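Sample A.
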Amino acid sequence: MRVLFITGEYPAMQGGVGDYTRQLSRALGALGTDVHVLTHADAGGDHLRAPAAAYEPTVYPLIERSGWHLWGVATRLVRELRPNVVHIQYQPAAYGLHGAVNFLPWRLRLARHRPRVLTTFHDLRMPYLFPKAGPLRWQAVVALYRASDLAVITNPADWLRLADAGLTARLRAIPIGSNIACCPQGGYDRDRQRALWGAGSDDWLLAYFGFLNANKGGETLIRALAGLVAAGKPARLLMVGGQVGASDPTNAAYLRRIEALIGELGLADRVRWTGFTSDDQVSANLLAADCAVLPYREGASLRHGSLMAALAHGLPIVSTQVPDEVRRAQPDRQAFPLPEHGVSALLAPPDDPAQLAAAVTALMSDAGLRTRLADAATGLSLQFTWEAIARRHLEAYRELGVA
């Protein structure tokens, strides 16, 4: 079976969807699938060289700009490769919010070799079409769903939105996995790693992982840290990984707001930033932390690779509550195994710094609770392995009549 992924970002670009596509490509390749990737011209380079034992897809960094240019590049590559499946990774920001990707399945129907098309919706953000497009922007998302032979959704919040629109007939639930394996370099020393970031054995080293944007609760996190410090707690915050990513320019403005808030609250000596590092350094920094604090505004959503990474590293997690209607929005009880409060995480209300700080205090004051949550996180992470995710994708491809 030959699969062509189309994604607006891919390593060495910084972005969760790019990392996801690479991990899924590797896992599918290990199961015998011939995987190719059409992506942005900034991708590739030495970053993609892997040990001989590892599978890497063939990467075509041919998308030089946002817009209708995508149609020509994609149709030419489809004609050349003749894939059984074209698998679109939909995250509008990675395509410059242009609507070309939304109508790409329609364009591929006109190709002499018509592959089956599957689209994974990593979010439901609407593309920009033209001034005052209004409701037509949502219709562009609907058009992509309707023109795809099958669609994948990664989290219950997006499932609920599509279900409310009556769009579940060809929808399949497949969560994402962790883009960061638990694999620090040999000779890893936790105390030494903590010392790199100014944390001693008695400090509470809190880790936030992932790019900053308005939906991830950065301001809530910083205000919660300020509350902990004001209460005399030895709390420090390690911001792990790149700050803003390659796809969404609005993230840079939000980062400036967070940096200004840190200065305003006098927390500059309590917050450290690792910057973009190798995967093994990300893993080492996560393992150095006492807990992960991920105050997403939409709740502990499975759309976030940062949550998956915290689970995979067996970290006790403090995050935010998922609305009841979202928690219930599943095609079956096992489709999206969400973290449960007091079982596999502590969950505070979104946008509530005081409650978030209280949850951190409860966790850090109870070693037994930290151990129980860490063990539960590790157990939950086993439901999100890349092999399992790849096998579920193979089942979806077979639904399309692809052997």
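Sample B.
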Amino acid sequence: MINVKHFCEKLGLEELSNTSCKEMDINVTDINRPGMQFTGFYEYFAHERPQVIGKVEMTYLESLDPDKRMSVLEKYMSYPLPCIIVCWGMTPPRELISLANERGIPVFQSKLQTTQLTFQTTTYLNRELAPHVTRHGVLVDVYGVGVLLTGESGVGKSELALELVRRGHQLCADDVVDICRVADDWLLGESPAMVRHFMEIRGIGIIDIRAMYGVGAVALDKSIDMVIHMENWNANKEYDRLGLQEEYTDILGVKVPYQVMPVRPGRNLAVIVEVAARNHSLKRMGYSAAHELDRRLNALIAQNSGMDE
């Protein structure tokens, strides 16, 4: 279900109908242009989608005599349409508004061109209808890489994020991260509106990062490109020292690169996260330092073996 008020605010729409409808039953992210339906073709009619009327459809409707236009619209609006959006700031025929009020179909007007409105509507619906989950952690933008810091409470996630902000990076969310899957391989994280830009630092309390460091120190949302799990150093645990094997964690069905970062006094965690972000960017470009070293070692072993023979 899509909230009508939020829909209008985000897309800059003006409601022309008088339906008092507060929510629309929209479950798909595509739109439909009803040109074929106006001519009488109703096979494969995607009536469950938002209906967008552009100049072509409007010109055709205006070319019809009033009785024919009423007949076309009655047939068209007999289906359970979630809403109708008229582009280019055009005024729809009075028959359309009358039938919409009668049948409870919201009608909106947009100043945008049809292509622009289509793009913005599908983008909005992709975001609103995407699967969501809430995770405990801190999301920061480090050199353009979205890093989700996880770990037990008190391990130092917020303090690390604060140091990263001080070094010029951006905070997206602290403590609570709302995550949505906007594509099959793309996760987007943001902070709940109530606590956006705020951070809790033990011993100090709540601080406002935007007020303290400026608007450039915060981001409204950020893709989640890697997860760094912070845990207290365990001397009996064997930590990865080469990085030859990639580890992943699953979030909403998306595999995200995952690394464990042991925490103990004396380690410069902010620098380590910066290096991890840069290294991740290199891997996305096809270069892995660990695999390059492994290749050199194998080449050297092969060379020495050849000399022994």
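B remarks: The chain has two domains: 2-128, 132-292. DSSP finds ten helices and 16 strands in the chain.
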